[in-house]
# Entry
Amino acid sequence: GAGVSQTPSNKVTEKGKYVELRCDPISGHTALYWYRQSLGQGPEFLIYFQGTGAADDSGLPNDRFFAVRPEGSVSTLKIQRTERGDSAMYLCASSAQGQGNTEAFFGQGTRLTVV
Amino acid sequence: KQEVTQIPAALSVPEGENLVLNCSFTDSAIYNLQWFRQDPGKGLTSLLLIQSSQREQTSGRLNASLDKSSGRSTLYIAASQPGDSATYLCAVDNAGNMLTFGGGTRLMVKP
# Structure
């Protein structure tokens, strides 16, 4: 596609529910990243995929958070037993190589609200 | 652990002014530095990417400089316009696989 696409753009869920956030990267980009941004702060790294595998998941806050990228393209961020503290903007980015010399392109984000 | 700081946190200027946004980072062993723009409730738009071997990049009215040894970057915006109002984020790439962001500078350009 022309850019990174994230769906849904907004998601409201009840505390304790399960949610899935989808990211469709730029076609051909092998590297995919998830970030989380709280209001008034900069984004914080969650997980990085190179192809199908999670090369670095050190930013995932706990085991309620999980992400997959089964075919090396679309990725899904999954959050179990959501808590009010999970409310944030979830941003996805992709880049051509992920080797530190290429530009990262971001999607429009999914605004998650846990009530 | 890399830490990125942006000063000022907020800035309000009249239209037409030239302005400078500052970014500092603690670990100078970076691959690159990227400046982004974020409109309220939206995603990030990449403005400029500076590789570690470069000292500056220019795009239109924007110029970003990088002084890796001192851990600093500046984003210069010439002849500011109301449409430039947004949050500007600086991010550094240390490991080749993730960006560390500053807290951003919220810019308002008044007509």
Q: What stands out?
A: Chain A touches chain B through 31 residues (CB under 8 Å). The radius of gyration of chain A is 13 Å. The mean pLDDT of chain A is 93. The CA atoms of residues 46 and 61 of chain A lie 8 Å apart.
